[in-house]
Amino acid sequence: MTESVRWIRALDPRDTKLNILLIAIPLTAYYNYVEQNYSLAFFSSLVAIMPLAFLMGRATEEIALRTSDSLGGLLNATFGNAAELIIAVLLILQASKVADVEAQSFYVHLVQASLIGSILGNLLLVMGLAFVWGGIHHSEQSYSENQVSSNGSLLLLSMIVLVIPTVFHSTVGGEVGDSRVQDLSHIAAVILLMMYGLFLFFQFRTHVHLFATDGSHHEDPEMTQRDAVILLVVATILVSWMAEILVHSVEAAAEDIGLPHLFIGVILLPLFGNAAEHFTAVSVAAKDKMDLSFAISMGSSTQIAVFVAPLMVVLAWLLDVPLTFEFGMLETVSAFLAVMIVNSIAADGKSNWLEGAMLLSSYAVLGAAFLFHP
User: Fold this and answer.
1) pLDDT per residue over 195-210, tens digit each?
2) Which of 318, 71, 11 has its CA nearest to residue 215?
3) What is the pLDDT of residue 10?
4) Which residue of 16, 43, 207, 229 sits 20 to 30 Å from the alpha carbon of 23, by its own alpha carbon?
């Protein structure tokens, strides 16, 4: 009886009003399998991923409460990025199945745009919302400067990996699928994966003390670990199902509505897929747990840039899909500027609502640029 009460409390609709959007799951199935209206299936699957990603974040947060803030942030970042990872993998698999070069290029560009969008969304939107919401409840909040230093350095390294192939392509010329750009991207992907492994070793083995927190912000779990794991597994399975429908319907939706693939990939996919980071990072910021909030938002961007993106390049390499780090000039410059402004704002280890507003303003300007991009 006690476990049932905890489960109900954890999923109380009064606290998680997004649960009502779970109705989009059967609607997606209906539009996709019965009515075969792929545009509606695309948007309903986007909506369905939102509460599912939130439930994944809710379950992960419950598990993270039994760990340190550093490990909790890594867990939240990892499972918070699960939706984007699943979508990217399915897009690459779909690209490997199509014979038409133009159709394959559409899926490749969508993967690249979604990866850039995830970095921008986590750095500017999620962190901005966390700073604003936390700043409304607390005049000034602080977090570990070591997190800023280590994550910021890794993000700058990843920006080099994005900038060099773009500059190389512009300087040397040739097609985006040029074998030289692909070879450069494959080498860079392997190096980034190695660096991410070294970063985890640094954070959790050799320099644990640098990421230790005072533990003053303690919160008791509302779910048992078993219930949290079950919820996480079920939500992940449903996200995978919705993502599969989304991937198979995205091309039809893009043609029907006329939205640029860049806007779909950079704004729409990460906006809904990042729902877990949105709500988890913002909610813990209001509780003055900024170490965890910062670890989720910036940690997610670091994980996308240094782990997920190179992993997708390696996967595409194995499947003979021409996915490279040549993401395009607008995407590359946007990501680079986002990393620079976040490193500048977060360098002092303190945050307030005005800094959050600056990040949100930057995200809005970039969103407009991608919307009007031909």
Assistant:
1) 888 888 887 778 776 6
2) 71
3) 45
4) 229
